[in-house]
Amino acid sequence: MTRFFTLLLGLLASTAVIASDSAATALDLTGNWVGYAAIAIFSAAYFLVILEEQIHLRKSKPVLVAAGIIWMLIALAYNSHGLTHVAEQAIRQNFLEYAELFFFLLVAMTYINAMIERGVFDELRNWLVVRGFSYRSLFWITGVLAFLISPVADNLTTALIMCAVILAVGQDKSKFIALGCINIVIGANAGGAFSPFGDITTLMVWQKGMLPFWAFFKLFVPSVVNFVVPALIMHFALPAGKPAEVGGDRGSELKEGGLAIVFLFFLTIVTAVSFHNFLHLPPVFGMMLGLGYLKFYGFYLRNKTHATATIASMDMPPGSDGKPGFDVFDNIAKAEWDTLFFFYGVIMAVGGLGFIGYLGMASAYIYGELGATTANVLIGLMSAIVDNIPVMFAVLTMNPDMPELQWLLVTLTAGVGGSLLSIGSAAGVALMGQARGHYTFFGHLKWTPAIAVGYFASIYVHFLING
Fold first, then answer.
1. Residue 115 near residue 121, CB atoms below 8 Å
2. Alpha helix (H) residue ranges in 278-327
3. Whole-angstrom Cα distance, residue 47 to residue 62?
4. Cα–Cα–Cα angle for 57, 439, 180, rounded to 5 degrees
5. Where are the alpha helices (DSSP H) in 118-173?
6. Looking at residue 195, what DSSP letter applies?
7. CB-based contacts of 281-289 (< 8 A; 24+ apart in sequence)
8. Which of 135, 255, 300, 439 could be 435's S-S partner, Cβ–Cβ 3.0 to 4.6 Å?
9. What whole-number distance in Å separates Cα of residue 176 and Cα of residue 466?
10. Is the pLDDT of residue 446 over 90?
């Protein structure tokens, strides 16, 4: 247990090194009061993050405060030694890493919100609800769709959409809802592990240049195994029969321009990949160009809406007259700002702890003594308890000397390890609220052994086909 907490602290405390020209002047503050205070501040902040659902304090707030105080302490320590620009250079480097992630995610979130506003996902949900599938068919359909949609949409949105289907058709079968939600969480997390866009952790690995774009797809088969194995075990516990009828044709939920926005999102992904692979530019710039696609199409859609509106409604905001109005900035405003600021706090706070001097200590123990395979498997298990984003950021900034096989392994384990517990991923936490009373922590925990079988089976398959 002591070693586990040592490993946990080491991972959370490690981060980016400063540029080589200032490395020689970096101070070792690990034994200084500044280092101890920084660890205490970050630990307290992260404890509040873990208790978010209980105390209803948004997770971005404590880490934002922690990041500011930690870098303030670092600056005071360096200024007292006359090193006034070393800390400045380090914090700029950390902020640049965050800025690239921020704008990439902002564009992706804007597209997802635009598709939600245009009714794309509502149309998919209604199509499934009125088809009269059996419980077992719906279990597999929603799980497979979660697996296939999450590589391009975030796993949180994917899980919420599929859970809406489960709730709509399984109102009288609590057991079906619970198993369906567990399956959706596993499918969404597994689907995100083999795509550079599927999860924040895979995005970080790709943007950092640890793996080329197409290398991630080597994890497709291990990800399938991670999803299918526990699903097969849970299949035999599902109720037989079909759910009661939920009504006839609900009509189309798809608004004008919905499919065009789906196409533009695909084009944006292609643009980002092309910027990275062919132009050797950061993919975030391709995503920003893709936001331009959406803005121009939004201009066309907005003008078309006004052109077809009645004279009486011409001075009303788009959509207020019941017609399908569209405003790109409305979708930008609906981005998950708490999540984006949480990323800022984590990256900057963990960055400060690493700059203090914990990077070498953690890297030497985790990857030196334990070995890459053991360390990467433990990182996946840890991500079920601690958010996988700071864990993966720590690994990336420790930058251990690993072959592609091991970078793929840690990408896989960090992506799917959160499925082991309901609190291990954003998808699980969200579904506990959406399916309250049906999908619970202990209900998920009951199936953790089956999920663990899938976890270790996927690791075995990874070494079998990629080793």
1. yes
2. 283-308
3. 9
4. 130
5. 120-129, 135-149, 155-169
6. S
7. 282/100, 282/207, 283/104, 283/206, 283/207, 284/100, 284/101, 284/103, 284/104, 284/207, 287/103, 287/104, 287/107, 287/108, 288/103, 288/107
8. 439
9. 36
10. yes
Q: Is 399 left (phi over 0), alpha (psi -120 to 50) or beta?
A: left
Determine the Cα–Cα distance for residues 121 and 284; give it in Å rounded to an integer.
25
* Integer Cα distance of 101 and 94 in angstroms: 11
Q: Mean pLDDT score of the chain, rounded to an integer?
A: 82
Residues 6+ apart with CB under 8 A from 313: 320, 321, 323
DSSP state of 241: S
Structure token digits, residue 22: 């200032």
The CA-atom distances, in angstroms, between 269 and each of 41, 253, 311, 328 are 38, 25, 39, 18
Residues 6 or more apart from 458 whose CB is under 8 A from it? 190, 222, 223, 225, 226, 229, 412, 416
Closest by CA position to 169, among listed 243, 241, 249: 243
Separation CA 407–CA 427 (nearest Å): 24
Label residue 339 by pLDDT band (50, 70, 90): confident
- What is the C-alpha separation between 369 and 364, in angstroms, rounded? 7
Question: Could you report the per-residue pLDDT of 134-186, keeping only the tens digit for each?
Answer: 889 989 999 999 999 888 776 777 887 788 788 877 766 888 999 999 999 99
pLDDT of residue 148: 92
Length of the chain equals 467
Positions of E strands within 356-424: none
Report which residue type is found at 35.
Answer: G
Which two three-digit tokens encode residue 282? 């950061």
CA distances to 157, 257, 261, 262, 424 from 116, in Å: 9, 12, 10, 11, 25
Query: Does residue 191 sit in helix, strand or coil?
Result: helix
**Residues in CB range of 221: below 8 A, 6 or more apart:** 461, 465
Phi, psi of 27 (to 5 degrees): -95, 145
Helix (H, G, I), strand (E, B) or coil at 351: helix
**Residues 422 and 440 sit within 8 Å (Cβ to Cβ):** yes
- The predicted model scores a pTM of 0.73
